[in-house]
Design brief:
The chain has 376 residues and is of the alpha/beta class. It is 30% helix and 13% strand. The protein has a single domain (17-363), classed as TIM Barrel (Alpha-Beta Barrel), CATH 3.20.20.70. It contains 10 helices and 10 strands.
Length: 376
């Protein structure tokens, strides 16, 4: 087998076949290439695959059922996901085990997804032994399935809520696009996941820039944290072939503000109710002294990829350049250098066009004046 050519079959089907991120294929030596700035991938990201594809129709997703083309050739979070047979993946993962700290198995909306995920979890646990995370599909699961996943070897589990509000969820993932997902089911499954796996062992994916107000996103992150879970943050980037392909990416200053808020909330340094917002819901203050906020910015930590931990890293699942190209890094897959921090500072101070040149502080909502906090 040539290292840059994936194994293929007429109709690849899990569990015998899996897709993996391009970064994962490079890490395992199955694809040739170099990472920008020598970034490294620490989590093997795997995706179930079926010739029928995903049954969901999420407006922002490259895997949506209404997108033309074979499932195996659709992009997902901006990159190709080549398909390989399970035995090759297990063998290559063993060979490169010292370079990896975690494995993530992602379900799609398909009748066989749960059964195959249980099988794959047990195989990787028994034969590879790395910590395993499951990105679940609540639509095709029941409560008892959580215990079964844990029994098979899953150490952590996450729910891709993606949207900050129920209304946006329904519009982008549910009835508004003819999709099967429902907000209540996703949220209740996240609650049960936190109970089943324990504090800091459950994750919630949220995407910034899909029409929500910053205040709503911050409040959702706090609700996730109050469950004992953590938020894995993404910046919206239009996926080719999706319903939102022509939409604009998330404004960088919006994403930076939310990244900082998420870090403070997930680290239990500050709560959403300590923060203040303007009349359009934008963050005005984090409820900390300016010097304290500046210290967090200087550390660079809030702006790194948020995901499941491993190997002493806050996020072993660092998804290099998954939500922005190297020329416009949104989630840094490595420690920020001095010039990166300088860029982040500039991005945080960008004015939104909606303010028409006025300072955000000039439009602060009555009763929401910042108290010694950071003014973007």
């Amino acid at each position: 087998m040539k290292p840059d050519k994936p194994i293929s079959c007429k109709a690849p089907r899990s569990p015998d076949y899996l897709q993996m991120s391009l970064a994962a294929a490079m890490t395992l030596g199955l694809k040739e290439g170099l990472f920008y700035r020598n970034a490294r991938l620490y989590c093997l990201n795997l995706l179930l695959t079926y010739p029928e594809g995903c049954r969901a129709n999420c407006a922002y997703c490259g895997l949506q059922k209404s997108r033309e083309g074979d499932f195996g050739h659709k992009s997902f979070i901006r990159v190709a996901w080549p398909t390989y047979d399970l035995e090759t993946i297990i063998q290559k993962t063993k060979e490169h085990k010292t370079r990896l700290f975690r494995i993530c198995i992602s379900m799609i909306t398909h009748p066989r997804a749960l059964r195959d995920t249980l099988y794959l979890t047990q195989r990787f646990q028994e034969e590879v032994g790395l910590p395993i995370s499951i990105l679940m599909n609540p639509t095709s699961m029941v409560t008892s399935d959580l215990q079964e996943l844990k029994k098979k070897g899953a150490q952590m589990a996450a729910v891709a809520l993606d949207l900050a509000t129920e209304d946006l969820f329904d519009r982008r993932r549910g009835r508004g696009v003819g999709g099967p997902h429902r907000f209540d089911r996703y949220w209740s499954m996240l609650e049960l996941t936190a109970e089943t796996f324990g504090k800091d062992k459950a994750g919630c994916h949220l995407i910034v820039g899909l029409g929500e107000r910053e205040e709503a996103m911050v409040q959702r992150i706090q609700r996730v944290r109050d469950l004992g879970a953590r938020t894995h943050l993404f910046s919206f980037f239009p996926e080719k072939g999706s319903r939102l392909a022509r939409e604009k990416p998330c404004p960088v200053n919006q994403y930076r503000r939310i990244q900082l808020a998420r870090y403070l909330i997930d680290g239990d340094y500050r709560r959403a109710e300590n923060m203040s917002f303007d009349d359009q819901g934008r963050i005005l203050s984090y409820g900390l002294m300016k010097s304290e906020v500046e210290q967090w910015i200087e550390s660079g930590k809030p702006f790194r990829t948020s995901g499941c931990p491993g190997g002493g890293l806050e996020a072993a699942c660092n998804r290099p350049f998954g939500d922005g190209p190297p020329r416009d890094i949104r989630s840094f897959p490595f420690a920020l250098e001095e010039e990166d921090i300088a860029l982040v500072k500039q991005q945080l101070t960008l004015d939104d066009r909606d303010f028409q040149g006025r300072s955000p502080a000039a439009r602060v909502r009555p009763g929401s004046e910042p108290q010694g906090g950071f003014k973007p």
